[in-house]
Amino acid sequence: MNISDKIKYIGVDDTTIDLFESQYAVPEGVSYNSYVILDDKTAIMDTVDKRGMKDWENNLLNTLDGKNADYVIVQHMEPDHAGSLARLIELFPEITVVGNAKTFVMINQFFENINIKNSLTVKEGDTLNLGSHTLTFVMAPMVHWPEVMVTYESSEKVLFSADGFGKFGALSLTENADWACEARRYYFNIVGKYGAPVQTLLKKASALDIKTICPLHGPVLSDNLGYYLDLYNTWSSYQPESKGVFIAYASIHGNTAYAAEQFAEMLRNKGVENVVITDLSRCDIAEAVEDAFRYDRMVLAAASYDAGVFPIMQDFLHHLQAKAFQNRTVGLIENGSWAPTAAKTMRNILETMKNITIVEPVVTIKSVLKETDIPALEQLADAIK
Ligand SMILES: Cc1cc2nc3c(=O)[nH]c(=O)nc-3n(C[C@H](O)[C@H](O)[C@H](O)COP(=O)(O)O)c2cc1C
Ligand SMILES: [Fe+2]
Ligand SMILES: [Fe+2]
Fold first, then answer.
1. Does the keyword Kinase apply (predicted)?
2. 306, 309, 345, 366: which to mutate for ligand 1, most atoms within 8 A of CB?
């Protein structure tokens, strides 16, 4: 894959990884992207995870085709991108490593005995001329690590965006896949907490004339860039993307699940268009986090458990809390067989989050949904529909 005559893709697909970052299911794998700019001086934009080092090295040497590697730009030190940096320096001991002050601290942490002969420390707005290509470095601290920077190449108007605009899925397996679905799951779970730094970066990006975005995971983006930038603006400002009600339930013996299903039917019958329901015990939690952020309303239904809430719901709420979940309307349904405590426990966690509106009434079911519970469920449905 070529970005242009002079900008080449040298990344690799990882189709055998079990869990990305040891927690995210990636049934279609993931790509570690890396690029080479061929000019009077050559520049390598990031390396790849050690898991793909051999293939990447082949891609690099084939693409350089005997040329020297002059610069490596280290935009992000996470091992899925900087994992092959030491190998690169073994291959090209004279290469100039380009990073910011924080990058070099991390390089020395990750690679104890690395021998960098040539380095260039850059800061906001610094430029590096390669011949006909010029790189400008734009700091992006906490998107989503402190050393992150992105790079703008002005002659071809390419933004190398680090993990920004990244997506799960190996390129070879997801050629025709919808972008937003897995980009959204990636964004909220990995970057979600850092909405404000992403907003800052988007403001800086809006001053640039961008034709192509080259992220470190997923496809290169070149058409209709406004679509991707708008989604990133929505996501990073914690605004809901879609109107709809996301119902997440945590049920031990199935009765809370049944109540949640009945509630979903009720909402559909009242004309709510998007009603999405999930079983937190069995779904991918990262997918549930994605849906919680995606829709403007959420209903949580959970069994009480040891004077608290069924742990899988507690775990889900802690995930949302860790990702700075905010600005949403939430309804609560609890179940309990002797002293229901699920709603209070959920409310306590929700109250630590910014701008969460809990809709009344909170519905309490005793063991099994009964005819007598229907009016309260109807009231909740009317309040959130
Ligand atoms: C280990 C365990 C602890 C529970 N703790 C409570 C509790 O503290 N208070 C309560 O009212 N019900 C408690 N329950 C009962 C559940 O809330 C019960 O399963 C629920 O009322 C029925 O809904 P379900 O079919 O969705 O599980 C507990 C159940 C289990 C298995
Ligand atoms: Fe990262
Ligand atoms: Fe990454």
1. no
2. 306
| Residues 187, 241: Cα–Cα separation, whole Å | 13
Angle at the Cα of 324 (from 322 to 327), degrees rounded to 5? 145
- Sorted by where each begins, the domain ranges of the chain are 7-236, 242-384
* 242-384 belongs to CATH 3.40.50.2300: no
* Model confidence pLDDT, tens digit, residues 342-353: 999 999 999 999
Q: Return the CATH number of 7-236, one of 3.30.1390.10, 3.40.50.300, 3.40.980.20, 3.60.15.10.
A: 3.60.15.10
CB atoms within 10 A of CB 5: 8
Determine the Cα–Cα distance for residues 24 and 184; give it in Å rounded to an integer. Answer: 13
C-beta separation of 119 from 111 below 8 A:
no
For the stretch 2-58, pLDDT in tens is 899 999 999 999 999 999 999 999 999 999 999 999 999 999 999 999 999 999 999
Please give the distance, rounded to the nearest whole angstrom, from the Cα atom of residue 376 to the centre of ligand 1: 20
Q: Which of 288, 290, 322, 287 is nearest to 302 (CA)?
A: 288
